[in-house]
């Protein structure tokens, strides 16, 4: 402010000021800063805890006002705040529109991010009012108003006990019970006094017969498996015999073909033709007799 002359007495400041800036800069001493803060009616003071939300941020962040200073009479960002976080300390110059008092901040139940919750706990450890332990007071249930008094009742009279229904006489018919309850009673006492025997469970014999049934199925399966093994062995034996007979027939056909070639001078193709014409019908005949199939050659 123009009336302040402390800029010309550097040693009069506490702490002393080493550099005042350029001559055309506006400079405010500590006293001028306090007066300007009161004149502008700032909502926060130094060391106050607050919530800071700058432009573009979705949620406010817990912080503390470290310093209040002005670079002009209408400085829009007089607060130097330091954020609470697990990382290195970070600060920023913010304005009145970006800060909110600690009591006017969000409730603990609305803070879902783990990092913001940790920042709130760090602020509480630094001296901020407890927020994580404050829970809303439970709402007391509404009591039902008493029923109006009837004629002859006194507000000081004791409460009337509920009377039990009188037992029916021996000759009077008993009250009708539900069908399920009556069925249970009839099973317990079918002849009026003689208790019936409890029905035996049918599940136990069924469970005892299950292993016998499984054993019979296993025996039948093993018998079928042995029969299949014997059939496979017999088929292999028949196949081996057929292969031996086919080899013998082929050998005889080759010998006869060579003899015919030596006599007539035929080529190897004629010998192969004679082998096919002699050995193939014999093989088909033997194979059909062996397996009971019919072929026409």
UniProtKB/TrEMBL annotation:
Q: Name one Pfam family in it.
A: PHD
Q: Where is the composition biased (Low complexity)?
A: 167-176
Cross-referenced InterPro entries: Znf_FYVE_PHD, Znf_PHD-finger, Znf_RING/FYVE/PHD
Q: Which UniProt keywords apply?
A: Coiled coil, Metal-binding, Zinc, Zinc-finger
Entry's SUPFAM superfamilies? FYVE/PHD zinc finger, Tudor/PWWP/MBT
Give the PHD-type domain ranges: 2-32
Molecular functions per Gene Ontology: zinc ion binding
Keyword check for Zinc-finger, yes or no. Answer: yes
Give the start-end ranges of region Disordered: 131-220
Compositional bias annotation for Basic and acidic residues: 185-194
State the coiled-coil residue ranges: 225-252
Question: What is the top-level taxon of the source organism?
Answer: Eukaryota
Name of the molecule in the record: PHD-type domain-containing protein
Protein source organism: Symbiodinium microadriaticum (Dinoflagellate)
Q: What is the lineage of its organism?
A: Eukaryota, Sar, Alveolata, Dinophyceae, Suessiales
């Amino acid at each position: 402010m123009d009336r302040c002359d402390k800029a010309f007495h550097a040693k009069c400041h506490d702490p002393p000021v080493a550099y005042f800036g350029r001559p055309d800069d506006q400079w405010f001493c500590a006293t001028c800063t306090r007066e300007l803060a009161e004149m502008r009616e700032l909502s926060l003071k130094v060391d106050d805890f607050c919530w800071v939300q700058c432009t573009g941020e979705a949620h406010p962040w817990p912080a503390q006002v470290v310093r209040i200073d002005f670079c002009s009479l209408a400085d829009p960002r007089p607060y130097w705040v330091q954020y609470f976080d697990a990382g290195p300390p970070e600060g920023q110059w913010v304005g009145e529109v970006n800060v909110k008092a600690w009591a006017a901040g969000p409730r603990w139940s609305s803070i879902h991010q783990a990092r913001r919750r940790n920042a709130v706990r760090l602020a509480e450890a630094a001296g901020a009012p407890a927020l994580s332990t404050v829970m809303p007071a439970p709402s007391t249930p509404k009591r039902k108003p008493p029923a109006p008094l009837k004629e002859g009742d006194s507000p000081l009279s004791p409460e009337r006990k509920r009377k039990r229904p009188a037992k029916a006489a021996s000759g009077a018919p008993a009250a009708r019970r539900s069908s399920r309850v009556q069925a249970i009673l009839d099973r317990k006492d079918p002849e009026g006094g003689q208790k019936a025997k409890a029905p035996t469970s049918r599940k136990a014999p069924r469970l005892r017969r299950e292993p016998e049934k499984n054993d019979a199925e296993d025996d039948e399966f093993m018998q079928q498996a042995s029969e299949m093994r014997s059939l496979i062995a017999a088929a292999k034996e028949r196949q081996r015999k057929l292969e031996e007979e086919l080899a013998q027939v082929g050998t005889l056909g080759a010998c006869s073909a060579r003899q015919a070639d030596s006599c007539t001078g035929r080529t190897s193709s004629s010998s192969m033709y004679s082998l096919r014409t002699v050995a193939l019908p014999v093989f088909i005949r033997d194979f059909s007799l062996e397996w009971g199939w019919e072929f026409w050659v």
